[in-house]
Amino acid sequence: xxxxxxxxxxxxxxxxxxxxxxxxxxxxxxxxxxxxxxxxxxxxxxxxxxxxxxxxxxxxxxxxxxxxxxxxxxxxxxxxxxxxxxxxxxxxxxxxxxxxxxxxxxxxxxxxxxxxxxxxxxxxxxxxxxxxxxxxxxxxxxxxxxxxxxxxxxxxxxxxxxxxxxxxxxxxxxxxxxxxxxxxxxxxxxxxxxxxxxxxxxxxxxxxxxxxxxxxxxxxxxxxxxxxxxxxxxxxxxxxxx
Length: 242
Description:
The protein has 242 residues and is mainly alpha-helical. 76% of the residues lie in helices and 0% in strands. It has two domains: 12-109, Serine Threonine Protein Phosphatase 5, Tetratricopeptide repeat (Alpha Horseshoe), CATH 1.25.40.10; 136-242, Tetratricopeptide repeat domain (Serine Threonine Protein Phosphatase 5, Tetratricopeptide repeat, Alpha Horseshoe), CATH 1.25.40. The protein is built from 13 helices and no strands.
């Protein structure tokens, strides 16, 4: 009987327990354990948009745990597939839509120039869609703010090359980057990553003193997300240069 029970198929109501345990693993930043639990929840309750979005997040967060670039790219590709599936299942959910934007942003890190530009356009497109669905979604403001200051600070030579060969990118400005990231901080003031990106937007906008203050504020906050360590490292490096 024990052997039969061990191989009994998962039932739909088993998913609730698996999701609870997976969320607990996610909260302690154990992405691998969370991924396994969400995969089991997916088997028990296929076609659930929330589970798909959470699978996307775990694959994305696991990129932090590996130094191998090929593995990072594979994880980002898997993350994108689940984010797209979540959006197909529930297209009016801002979290699902923004997950697609985040995946394209990560994939751009490992892409050639043509793909980087296409992914950059998709990041902006999906982030704007998410914000239209939920104007008070802090992470949508975060992603759009980062997109604006990063694109706005591309060098003149790069901009000329992009325009000449690929037709350019949508308009961007450091002021818009600051505006969106200030709003992200207003909506979720306890998240370090919002303040770190605000610091970089302010720095790009020439507001060095305010940037320094934003970095210091971010470093004084407790860890809330798995990627806060990476954000803090960037803030410390920026402060050292300031």
